[in-house]
Design a protein that fits this description.
Length: 228
């Protein structure tokens, strides 16, 4: 049996109490000189590069300029995030420590992250949890602004690492948003949704995840869903 288990970060593994959002606001203001309100815009399920271009454009930056200066803004974001994110602000969500540790000990399982965070951001967010070394494969906002492109990138990296070609339900994507559930549909992956973010169980269910949990607190049940 082989499993490649790919976790979303924000509101799936951790709650960073808005540190990422605050850093993005400051980076956009510093890079493009624009500020604004979210007006219903949600960061959830989106990638950092997409969020920056969309918000900067919404707040008055011409889209071409937003794209041209994206690398500068992302670099600024990492600087600001380093200030914003304090270890006591990164809260591990229920069951996550036990779940990740149990899976990391299972030789049938390779762990990875599949996240809209860019690489430096994901490292800053996960370092305080002590779990970062368990994640052997990263597919992130540094690879693509489009989340549906990330599962195939993770699968390819896992194959390079292990020599095994993971496919279909051997690939497990765990996340808290409809975007997490849907991103692996093209590969027919196993989607596990968890309602520890902005979306309730009732809001996630219509997207048809293979499994749906209120939180990961009953981590043994999650392990069963992964290995089933
Ligand atoms: Mg999330």
């Amino acid at each position: 049996m082989h499993r490649l288990v790919l976790f979303d970060i924000d509101c799936t593994l951790i709650d960073a109490h808005g540190a990422g959002g605050r850093a993005i606001f400051r980076a956009i203001a510093d890079t493009y000189g624009v500020r604004g309100e979210l007006d219903g815009y949600s960061f959830h399920g989106r990638t950092d590069p997409a969020i920056i271009v969309e918000l900067a454009t919404r707040w008055g930056t011409p889209e071409a300029v937003a794209r041209d200066r994206l690398a500068t803004c992302l670099a600024r974001y990492v600087e600001v995030l380093r200030d914003e994110i304090t270890p006591d602000e990164v809260e591990l969500l229920p069951g996550v420590g036990e779940l990740v540790t149990a899976l990391a000990c299972d030789r049938r399982v390779v762990l990875g992250v599949l996240t809209g965070n860019i690489d430096d951001g994901l490292a800053l967010k996960l370092a305080p949890t002590g779990l970062l070394p368990h994640f052997k494969v990263h597919a992130s906002g540094s690879d693509s602004a489009l989340r549906p492109e990330l599962p195939a990138i993770a699968v390819e990296r896992a194959q390079r690492l292990t020599g095994y070609g993971y496919s279909g339900k051997e690939v497990v994507v765990i996340g808290d948003t409809p975007a997490d559930i849907l991103c692996g549909a093209g590969l027919a992956v196993r989607a596990i949704a968890v309602a520890t973010g902005r979306h309730t169980l009732a809001e996630l269910a219509p997207y048809g995840p293979d499994y749906l949990f209120a939180d990961l607190g009953d981590w043994r049940a999650v392990v069963e869903a992964i290995l089933a």
